[in-house]
Fold each of these.
Amino acid sequence: MTRLNSRQPSSRTPGDVFDLPHFKSMIQRTLRYVSAGYPVHYTGPAGIGKTTLALHTAEKRGRPVTVITGSRDLSREDLIGAYSGYSRKKLHDNFVRTVHKIEENVSENWVEGHLYKAVKEGHTLVYDEFTRSSPYTNNLFLSILEEKVMPLYGAKRNESHIRVHPEFRMLLTSNPSEYAGVYETQDALFDRLITIPLERMDVETETAVVMKRTGMKKEGAVKIVSLIKRVNEQLGGSGSPLSIRTSIMMADIAYQHAIPIEGSHPAFQHLCLDFMMFPLQLQAGEQTNNVEALILNECRNIKEGS
Ligand SMILES: Nc1ncnc2c1ncn2[C@@H]1O[C@H](COP(=O)(O)OP(=O)(O)OP(=O)(O)O)[C@@H](O)[C@H]1O
């Protein structure tokens, strides 16, 4: 019978992963720039940790945090707010028996957009994957960042704009592989951001994150993280198709189902193939025949206790 381990994130990691050198200086610098009033933009490939770092740093400011995720469908209306539905008030006055008076008032309901609230109340805004939104939507941020006002385009409000709260700040994330055809149209926005490219975590940091997320002990976590690193180096070409997400998922399943992190164990070999084959085949294109053999070769090099 399979023994199941219950997950206890954080329980085995000494201290906080964000105190490790990989994160510490980045967080300090970001808070410095943000407190001086500048928006900070983390950029890097999928799974490098942009969103997690932005959320953590935003929380460090001690202000309420609003999160918006960029998308082609995100509209100015979603951000600013809009009138939606009607409220109807009806008063029947039958005080004098022979007179029946009805008074009816109909008013539209204003629903605040997330950005409207964040700007008005001075939140820290995390705008994740902002380059996925249309330049038309993102133009709204130019006046917020430059003139410190948010125009209420098309909102049918009496006021034309609201003033940006002095504590309002922004952290943004994006993936450079999604810039195709985007940069030219959004360069005015890029020009107002402090852009920090994120580096892939070193083995020590990635191991600490895997331990924190899964509850796995250091000995197992470091083997998985190092395996992913070696496979990326051998098969990843110019990129690293296997991100920390692969390490976390493999460690999670191995830990929960007590699969030994040992290259000769069939369950571990299956785990390696199931998680690595597809992304690596996509990357390798025509030379896919080698992929399975290379994964198994790297996997079998992992010895018990090594
Ligand atoms: N410091 C950390 N502590 C705990 N988990 C982390 C940390 N950094 C990254 N992770 C985990 O690693 C995975 C990838 O991180 P994240 O989603 O932040 O990356 P990303 O660069 O924003 O990826 P994408 O571009 O695909 O959205 C997530 O499962 C996240 O929870």
Amino acid sequence: MTAISIESLIHTWPGQSHATLDIKELNINAGDTFFIHGASGSGKSTLLNILAGVLSIQSGKLEVLGQNFATMSHAQRDKFRADNIGYIFQQFNLLPYLTVMENVTLPCHASKQRERNAIEQYGSVEEAAHYGLTSLNIPKALFHTSVMRLSVGQQQRVAAARALIGNPSIIIADEPTSALDHDNIQNFMETLKQKCSEINSTLVFVSHDRTLAEFFGQSMTLPSRLQEAEQ
Ligand SMILES: Nc1ncnc2c1ncn2[C@@H]1O[C@H](COP(=O)(O)OP(=O)(O)OP(=O)(O)O)[C@@H](O)[C@H]1O
């Protein structure tokens, strides 16, 4: 099954003389690990926002899990995202006034489907969060403390546990390793891949760091607009 299918996708931001994104064709199979590399300004965030349904499609075709995004309203895409996409942000986006557990269980409050999946597999949302955090090496003693008291590496693993809870079909990761040191990057990449494979989730991972491509089954590079402008 195809998880993500793109045909002739073009996105031009207002005031720009040429398109930020121009992707003729891209197919990502369900369960694959896919790396998108691109320099700063090449349109990585724009593409991820389109894939997650945050931005509407201007031109071309995009199907995510067989759903045609062009025919869906903003509200339909928001629900689809909550149910089917776990998102890991560059700056983690953990809520500072919530505990580790409260952060991790959030997606199950936003999506009945993810809540159901968590309960079916682990008996309760809390048990699902416990399992996720433990398997990502977060000590139990930290489960009920504020996320602000965690190290950067721990915060990123909590962000991963939050993205994975309730088994979303797709995990999108936007530069999630940029704040980590070398050893933490290796550990984080291996663990993230293993966890995605455990829940049969498709991993779409974006970074400016092309050395990370080695961790993935397939990859693509977005052309640098700066280079094009200079040619
Ligand atoms: N909301 C917006 N309004 C107008 N232009 C935008 C907007 N967001 C992005 N752009 C433009 O689109 C281009 C690509 O930006 P984007 O953030 O997608 O790139 P990126 O590859 O994620 O960059 P970085 O690695 O620096 O985060 C840039 O020229 C940027 O100015």
Amino acid sequence: MGRNNPGCNILDPGLLENAVVNLSAVNEQATKLVNSRCLKNEFEAAWLLKAITCIDLTTLAGDDTSSNVTRLCRKAARPLPEDLLNYLGFEYDADCPIRTAAVCVYPSKVEAAVATLHMLGLSDKINVASVATGFPCGQTPLFTRLEEIKWAVKQGAKEIDIVIDRSLVLTGQWERLYNEIKEMRDACGDAHMKAILAAGELTNLSNVYKASTIAMMAGADFIKTSTGKESINATIPIGIVMCRAIADYYKKTNFKVGLKPAGGIKTSNDAINWLVMIKEILGDAWLTPELFRIGASGLLSDLEHRLYQIVTEKIGEPYEFSMG
Ligand SMILES: O=C[C@H](O)COP(=O)(O)O
């Protein structure tokens, strides 16, 4: 990962001047993006492999145990069956680029993830990301939210996915939102910080733009759409607005902040839609795990099925695939 976002020393209202969002234009752009492509198989396979390398492979369930986190890490290390990977021209050797970017877990499971990736010799290739700050709601006192970040970093998390306090957006307390996120940034130390906006709970796209910009001004390295627990998660219109906020922030500060859509991204088609959006709005420079992640618990198996279908020209039987 590159250097952390230095953010802005104060909340700069000038950066919020593009916060008026034309809803019908955004919806029109979203429709065009999802209908605009027709990929040949070999290009589709390349996009799908790219998607794998951008996944934060996630388990955030109440019944998570150390052993399912260990299994998740093994899947992150070898996301495809070996024969399928070989067909696609890669091998699971030390230089194999086909791994997920990170695993994403609750703070109490960071230790198990760090130990497994260390045992696999992949600590420097796959990061451990931890959610924090009272995920998914962020409704605990700031003091405990900050302590939770510090604890997760101490356990070995290299990336921290914080959630913002949505009530500060809904009541227009922008300065306080900025100050809270800035404190969270400081608590992360050297770890990268992804700010989860829970965009589906922010009422409108103008609030999504403002919250995105304030998170970046406060030092977020990534802005992330959702926790995966809201009723509206990562939608294409939300993604478009967040990409525009990232592009505007880059124009004004020359710093590239990443985007992490998360929540409900389950199919190969979904993954390609997001990759195409990044390419069209932010450009190729963002098409890298340094600047683009997909947070997903269930996407990988569909990518595997689709790649199998492309390679063999048949739909695989369920028994031909691993159990996730
Ligand atoms: O941060 C990642 C999300 O919680 C994953 O959501 P998902 O389970 O809908 O893929």
